[in-house]
Structure formats: C-alpha cells, structure tokens
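thought: fold this chain, then report.
action: predict
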Amino acid sequence: MYLDHPATVIHTGIVIGRYGGNTSAGADKNEDGAFILKEPGGSWEFAMLLDAHKTAESAELLVSTISSQALEVARLLSLPVNEAFASLEGFLLSIFKSEEFIDTCKQITGETACLICARKENYLWWLSIGDNSVYLLHPELAARGQYVLNQRNFYEWIGCVNTFAQPVACYSSDIRELRPGLNVIVMTTDGLLEYGTRGFEDPRKLYLAFTEEQDLEKCVKDVLLDVHQQSGRDSATIIAWSYGNSRNAAMPSD
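observation:
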C-alpha cells in the first residue's frame, strides 16, 4: 500500500508514482488504482487512474473490466486518429452503461473516481468521472496560463453509488491538440492536491515541478516525497509521460 513509502516505477516509458499516505497523519490504507496500455511501437498510450473509497473493490472492478477488453481498446486506438477517440469513447460508455456492469456495481462496497486518457499522434483524449485531474504541460500553453485539462467534479463515481445508474449519466470528455515539441502529460488523484499547504492546487507550481527537471521519474519522486514530508494523509497516485510532437499545431492567422 506504500504507506510512509513513496515509490515510482517506469512501465513502458510511463512513470507511475504511488504513495499510500503518512501513517502519523492517520493513513492506514491505499485504495487507488491504475491501468496502462501502450502500443509497442509508441503510436499510442492508454491510461486509467482510479481513486476509490470505503474499499478498493470499485477500483479492482474497473481494472479487471478494462483489462478484459484490452484487445478491443488496442484495436480501436489502431484506427485512423479521426475515428479512434470517438470509437473508444463509445465503446467504454457502452460498457459502463450496460445492465450487466451496473448490476455488478450494485454488489460491491464503495465507489471510485475514474479518469481515462489516450494519446494518439498529436492529440490527447480524456474521459473523466469524478475529481481526478489531468494536466497537459507545455511552454506555449503555460505562457497563457493553461495547464489543467479537466474540471474536478465532485459527487461523481462508478461503483455502489454510480453515475451510470442514473437516468442521465454525468461525466466529461474532450480532446486537445498537442503543441510542437515536448508535451508532458500528468494524471493525478487528489492526494497530490489536498495536503499540507496545498501548493499544487496552483497549477503553475505543478507545471514547474514537472518541467524544470528533465528526469520525469525524479519529478514524480520529488512531489510524492513532499506529500510525505508534509504529512499527507490521503493516498496519491500519479501517471506521467512525455511525448515529443514533431507535427505543427494550430496558430492564429497573421
């Protein structure tokens, strides 16, 4: 559970940071989860980040459900980019809205926030249920004060309390074009934002923490160590990777 022990690992070029919280502040469990797929040639990445509560059953359900569909996720992300994201979103929503999945959710204890991101070519797509955050970090965007892609939305979950069991499901999704050069993508649970002086609630500070150092794994280690040193009680999980984009991006007319 990584209590009192921030840890990082690099999986197929993607950094995963895990920390269960500081036991001196009352931390006693870690119910976060993560699931990652990457095309071996590097043409796309798929990442899911989960922040469960009460038990980890909802996170386990999402991981097992999406893992069982990994081949179909890979097939959809292998489609042309103008088809891939819409097809992937429709497929995932069809799972979450299915009677079988909703019935399974009713049988578990607890619920989870769920953030899913996919990068293909020079685009990043995301689907968010709940209050996990995804950041697209690039100097051109930072110069205009743009860092975080999604709005943190509270009172949305998948699990025993389930937005997809409501008459109208509540979630958000979008697509962003990557800028030329190095783009850094960071997904995080709220344990990185709601601790100590809550410094990373200022997205510029998060931008600096993840871009001033070239070693992305060291960046993740450093921010998780700060959570521990400031006695963060909640678990914090980070998924981070970079993508060097050689394509041009939209610019305003002269």
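thought: worth noting. The longest strand covers residues 44-53.
final: tokens above.
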